[in-house]
Write a structure and sequence with these properties.
A two-stranded antiparallel sheet has the order 1-2. It is globular. Helix 2 runs antiparallel to helix 19 and helix 16 packs antiparallel against helix 21. The chain is built from 22 helices and two strands. It has 509 residues and is an all-alpha fold.
């Protein structure tokens, strides 16, 4: 994956890592903040949370239209500055009254709009790095690295949010409610780092920005290179994509419960302390060591030189030695706070991406690799399995409102339930998210490529809005088995639908 990549990839990926680190630091505690600071009911807090997610994924459509007119580079930098203002407002402890709620609403709009300008347009810039023939064949691996960079930022975010809040409460004596604003301030700092990386290393991708005007002039010539599709073929492809978008809506509705009902489950139903081997999972440094072991193992297997194999072996030994040291240094139980569970999904993505690439490369060599639509269907099946697993683990637990009251709290379950659930959902994500984007770019009729990618984001936005529904069910005091069962059923029905039209989808892919 790392060989023969354009230098601009690293600059843009690291700039994106900084921005995503701030975003996920804020997101890790946002739902909890809404309840702790404003006292919102679960349904209301979930609605605000999901509406914000919807805007974050809907506004890249507007950002793309603006970029076509004003340029991608200008929109990326404008987006960073607008996001900064939004996070700055959110980091101000304005209290709990209507003014504070209004300021929070303004901050969310600014963050969503800034993200809309930044998110999709930065990805377009990354894609244009691979327009050069010498890099063209590495486009997929380049985007895998870019996707991993997003998750590296997300992996450290929950720990950063918890640590800064604990520090503010212990060292500055601020209340729990006000300490959330310190977590939001982390996003401001990360954006400063992000914009610094973007400008300092701008020389590595300046040719992309310089070519924007030329690209517009050459559009008419490029269109001639496309194989013209008949109206019937164009219609068939658009219909197939829209059918996939319909399924994608329900995947993101289920998957993004990580910041909603799964976080509520972590707060109300999961044991608040952890001991022994399990407790090591809640220190992000140990997770990073495990990731080093995975990557170094691939390096050991794939290195073509003795020196390369020796370095890889050294990394493996060092990482395992650190893990043994960390285990032997354990003393008693560690506190487990709800937001920390959100580190597992990005950690799994970073660790499992090379494993996923290797598996599908091997299947391709023996002629048994699933098609892109088949992978999407399998992703929905795996997501359904994740929520079936949650339903099984939740049997016998109290109703949400009963459990949420300290006076009537019942049994709490092992953290292993959520840790394993996030592993299952990550497998689903790797099957669906990058594969879905690839399917869109491959199938979309050339003259509607921008619109189709915009609709992909639009489908994601609708799914994020629907994230609120399980939260509302939680607030209505429905049983956990019912809530997880509904999510599992939706994913299962979506998978059945995909496989029912698989021949139609395979035909156009």
């Amino acid at each position: 994956m790392f060989e023969n990549q354009p230098k601009g990839l690293w600059a843009l990926a690291l700039a994106n890592t900084g921005e995503r680190f701030g975003y996920y630091t804020m997101l890790a505690v946002f739902l909890l903040y809404l309840q702790a600071n404003f006292g919102y009911a679960t349904g209301t807090a979930s609605t605000i949370y999901s509406t914000f997610l919807m805007m974050v994924y809907f506004l890249p459509i507007i950002g793309g239209i603006a970029a076509d007119k004003f340029g991608f580079g200008k929109m990326v930098t404008s987006g960073i500055f607008i996001m900064f203002i939004g996070y700055l407002v959110l980091s101000l402890p304005l209290g709990k009254d209507m003014v504070a709620a209004g300021a929070m609403g303004l901050a969310l709009v600014l963050i969503a709009f800034g993200t809309g300008l930044f998110k999709g347009n930065l990805q377009v810039m990354v894609g244009r790095l691979y327009d050069e023939p010498k890099y063209a064949q590495n486009r997929d691996s380049g985007f895998s690295l870019f996707y991993m960079a997003i998750n590296i930022g997300a992996m450290f975010a929950p720990t950063a949010a918890i640590k800064i809040m604990d520090w503010a409460q212990a060292s500055l004596g601020v209340s729990v409610e006000d300490s959330y604003h310190f977590a939001f301030a982390v996003a401001c700092a990360s954006l400063i780092v992000s914009i610094a990386i973007y400008y300092i290393f701008g020389f590595t991708y300046k040719h992309v920005l310089a070519s924007e005007t030329k690209k517009k002039d050459d559009d008419s010539l490029e269109r001639k290179d496309f194989n013209e599709l008949s109206p019937a073929e164009t219609k068939e492809r658009i219909v197939c994509l829209c059918l996939v978008f319909a399924v994608v809506i329900f995947f993101w509705m289920a998957f993004h419960q990580n910041g909603a009902t799964l976080t509520l489950f972590a707060r109300d139903y999961t044991q608040t302390t952890s001991e022994g081997l399990q407790s090591m999972a809640f220190d992000v440094r140990n997770l990073v060591a495990c990731i080093f072991v995975v990557y170094a193992s691939f390096g050991l297997a794939q290195s073509k030189t003795f020196k390369g194999k020796l370095i890889s072996l050294g990394v493996i030994v060092a990482a395992i030695s650190y893990l043994f040291y960390a285990y032997n240094a354990l003393e008693g139980a560690v506190d487990v706070k709800a937001p920390i569970f959100q580190q597992f999904n990005p950690c799994y993505v970073v660790a499992l991406t090379p494993v996923s690439v290797a598996i599908f490369s091997w299947l391709n060599k023996i002629g048994k690799e699933p098609t892109s639509p088949e992978k999407i269907g399998l992703g929905m099946l795996v997501a359904a399995l994740g929520f079936v697993w949650m339903a099984v683990g939740s049997m016998g637990l109290e109703l949400p409102l009963t459990q949420g009251d300290p006076a009537t709290e019942g049994t709490r379950v092992s953290a292993n339930l959520l840790i394993s659930t996030y592993l299952i959902l990550t497998f689903a994500e790797l099957l669906l998210s990058p594969i879905g984007i690839s399917f869109v770019t491959k199938v979309a009729p050339p003259k509607y490529a921008g619109l189709m990618m915009g609709l992909w984001f639009g489908a994601t936005a609708i799914g994020n809005q629907l994230v609120m529904l399980p939260g509302i069910m939680w607030g209505q005091n429905l049983s956990l088995v019912t809530i997880w069962g509904v999510l599992a059923g939706i994913c299962l029905l979506s998978a059945v639908f995909i496989f029912s039209i698989i021949k139609k989808l395979n035909k156009v892919s």
